[in-house]
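Entry for the shared binder. Reason: the reviewer on the internal report wants the predicted structure included alongside the sequence.
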Amino acid sequence: MKFPNFKDLILFEDNDFIVINKPPFLASLDERGGSGETNVLRLAKQYSDDAQVCHRLDKETSGALIIAKNPEGYRHVSMQFERRKVNKTYHAVVDGQVIFDQLMVDLPILNDGNKNVTIDRAEGKRAETIFDSLKYYKHYTLVECKPITGRMHQIRIHLATQRAAIVGDEMYKGKPVFLSSIKRGYKLTKGEEEQPIMKRFALHARHLVFKGLDDQDIVIDAPYPKDFATLIKLLDKFDA
């Protein structure tokens, strides 16, 4: 998989931090068992020797990711994450028309290891997400997701509990979006197999606010990557 030049991913940079718009299919850190594949941490270290990734996004998730350029910056942001002071907003496209108005989902998540998480009221760790519907289509909804905590797969599993799985998120029974399902009269050529509009689940870290070492807010907006933007454009055109 070919990734863009690291410099081209940068949304913000000062003496202490870099914030990138992480492309989909690029891991944040070395995967367990170290396959030696390219990831954000490796690219960042080539750009800035002491770079540390301050949090992680799932491999398929795109969007704003904070990288510290020095240990002081890393500690500063880690403390903000620990105290839940980092303001994170994600956008997701979900199955069906769902009306969320400041819906707070407060369901504990248990990480079984091996990238497997479940809702577990007895053993799980506290997990809270606030959801708001931004735009309704005939068959889908664009949803704003604000995780208060930062559990693995939190947004994905919390949406699934609301019968609003993220499109393309097979792990949580989300179905991919095909052009044939929204565009009337769409015909495939004979023998052609239709590909989904997005070849991953539709989740993007859109907005991020954290404090720099001078305690001033650093406000980040991460534009949609091409695949997410294309999905929205086609839904606007054929499913509005």
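Summary line for the report: The domain at 6-239 is CATH 3.30.2350.10 (Pseudouridine synthase).
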